[in-house]
Design goal:
mainly alpha, 3 domains, two-stranded antiparallel sheet, two-stranded antiparallel ribbon, 22 helices, 8 strands, disordered N terminus
Length: 552
């Protein structure tokens, strides 16, 4: 007889066979669902349009440079320039003759000006009855003893990094010999002054006397001239820097405007083409004859042609859409140039990241417009999700295209061109899609992640607080108590396992006891199987099920 203290009807082993929580693939399934949604949407279409626009050289990777489109001193100091001309003028060695004026010619080679120092001195003698020293006020003679002095010296202009970076050799030469930076003075003073600034030279001493005393300098007048020159130099250099920036920003703006315009046109056409071709393919099997299929195909292309021209005829609507896109594109190009220049004052950005930033910023501008206008009248939550996807997809697509282009460049040396392009485009699509899905999934669960992080942070803080307020002996006592509790818990677990195996053993004995009636043996066998965790569908419960199993 079985031990009456043992409950033979128990699901202990069945419970041991339940599914492990850690094998749950809900998170992974959700990720794949998001990825399928992205791929099944117009992602591929938009990706293809971006690739076409890149091949049209409207913002492709080759048109971006390390450091961006605008020069910065930081980039120049690190050897990064927007073009070779900037590199040459910045790194050119000092030569005083480059700052003594020049004969100015137009594009056809005709002389249109002459601002050389000798020429200016000659004009000064010719146009003035008498000449006074600009620093002393003393009268000068109209001969070789009168010099034209650079108030801000040629060497100081050369040492101005901003001037070297943003101004060509000719521009700096013209600035150096401008009337705002020249002063007629005694030749002895000019030779003594050399490459010093006017203030430095005035303060310099010889034989215990400053140059102010030696040459009887009018300090009020010399200071005024120095300030006037410095203001002129600063204003001129900054004007050239602004000119370069506005030129680069405008160029980038027009480039992005064209990209947006062609993008809208390609998107409109591709929508029409995809709709018509998808409809044709879905009905392909319903056309029994080849002639019918060819006839329907011809009709498809006629409808595509008609719909495209119909869209063009709605010129007002199309122009409004193009105007908005072009304006947005131009604004995007200008703003991204501003931000890129600010970034490059602190960190030199590389070519690939400049393109990714440009495309990402373009998506951000589009998202802001959608958020502000909400054309589909979405609820705030859905609208927020929509603009998130726009930004994420824009950045991910750009990253995919950049990496695909890098891969294509590597493969083109070992594979045929067409094959390297197919592989690189496929990889780019895969990277872009997975990245988009991953970021969207992460943003969706961002709140949960923050909660988990906060919990861990709070637990850590509490642990630190305990460590600061509880003595070592108290911690040791708590530890010993916990160990005893663990030992007790393990004892209970082991006792429970032993009891369950005793139950299982009793059931096995009863199921195989030949002294029992067949019906009793069958009942115990069923209990044995159920207790062992066997699925109910795999258990034979009675003689009818046994006969059906073996005879059918």
């Amino acid at each position: 007889m079985p031990d009456s203290s043992i409950d033979l009807k128990d699901d202990f082993f069945k419970r041991l066979n339940t599914k492990d929580d850690y094998s749950n693939n809900d998170n992974l399934n959700e990720f794949w669902k998001i990825l399928r949604e992205q791929i099944s949407s117009d992602f591929i279409q938009k990706f293809g349009i971006q690739v076409i626009l890149d091949k049209m050289r409207l913002g492709n990777l080759e048109q971006f440079k390390d450091g961006g489109d605008v020069s910065t001193i930081r980039n120049a100091e690190n050897g990064v320039f927007v073009d070779l001309d900037h590199k040459k003028q910045y790194e050119k060695e000092f030569n005083r003759k480059d700052y003594e004026g020049r004969i100015i010619k137009d594009d056809n080679g005709r002389i249109i000006g002459d601002n050389r120092l000798a020429k200016q001195r000659k004009e000064l003698f010719k146009n003035n009855k008498s000449i006074s020293d600009a620093y002393t006020g003393k009268k000068l003679t109209k001969d070789g003893t009168t010099h034209m002095d650079h108030i801000t010296s040629a060497k100081n202009i050369y040492n101005n990094k901003k001037a070297r970076l943003f101004m060509s050799d000719n521009d700096r030469n013209d600035m150096a010999v401008s009337s705002s930076n020249l002063a007629p003075i005694d030749g002895r003073m000019n030779q003594s002054k050399g490459e010093y600034t006017l203030n430095e030279w005035c303060a310099k001493e010889r034989d215990g006397h400053s140059n102010i005393e030696r040459f009887d300098i009018n300090t009020e007048q010399s200071n005024s001239l120095q300030k006037k020159s410095e203001k002129f130099i600063s204003k001129t250099v900054n004007a050239h820097a602004r000119k370069e920036f506005f030129s680069a920003a405008t160029e980038r703006g027009f480039q992005q405007a064209k990209r947006k315009m062609y993008g809208v046109i390609l998107y409109e056409i591709s929508n029409i083409v995809l709709e018509e071709i998808s409809s044709f393919i879905s009905k392909w099997c319903s056309y029994s004859k080849i002639t019918d299929k060819l006839k329907k195909a011809r009709l498809v292309f006629l409808r595509i042609n008609q719909r495209v021209f119909q869209r063009i005829r709605n010129i007002k609507e199309l122009l409004e859409e193009l105007f908005v896109s072009v304006s947005t594109g131009f604004l995007n190009g200008v703003l991204s140039t501003i931000i890129t220049q600010i970034k490059n004052n602190f960190l030199t950005t590389i070519q690939s990241w400049n393109k990714i930033f440009q495309d990402g910023f373009s998506s951000f501008i589009q998202a802001v417009k959608i958020w502000a206008t909400n054309p589909q009248k979405l609820a705030k939550k859905d609208l927020f999700t929509s603009v998130q996807k726009i930004v994420v997809a824009g950045i991910s697509t750009s990253i995919g295209i950049v990496l695909g282009e890098k891969l294509r460049s590597a493969l083109i040396n070992i594979l045929p061109t067409y094959l390297s392009e197919i592989i690189s485009d496929a990889v780019a699509v895969l990277i872009s899609g997975c990245l988009t899905a991953l970021v969207i999934y992460s943003l969706k669960h961002f709140g949960h992640a923050i909660q988990q992080f906060s919990k861990i942070l709070n637990d850590s803080i509490n642990s630190i607080k305990i460590g600061l307020t509880v003595t070592a002996s108290e911690i040791n006592l708590a530890y010993q108590t916990a160990v005893l509790k663990i030992d007790d818990s393990y004892s209970e677990v082991l006792k429970s396992i032993k009891t369950q195996y005793e139950k299982l053993n009793k059931l096995a004995e009863l199921a195989h006891d030949m002294n029992k009636l067949a019906s009793a043996q069958l009942s115990f066998s069923v209990s044995y199987a159920e207790t062992s965790g066997v699925s109910d569908t795999n258990i034979l419960h009675n003689s009818d099920e046994i006969s059906k199993y073996f005879l059918e």
